Amino acid sequence: MPGDKYIEKLEYLLSKNAAKRESWSRARRRNLYMIAFDFEDMNVTDVEVDTCLLGRRESYGPGLTLPNIRLPSKVNDAVSSGWGPFLLAKCVVPNVSLKTLLNFTVASNRGFFYRRRVAKNVSAVISMFAGRCAITPNPYAEPTINGPTLVNYM
Question: Which of 14, 22, 111, 133 would bridge with 54, disulfide CB 3.0–4.6 Å?
Answer without folding.
Answer: 111
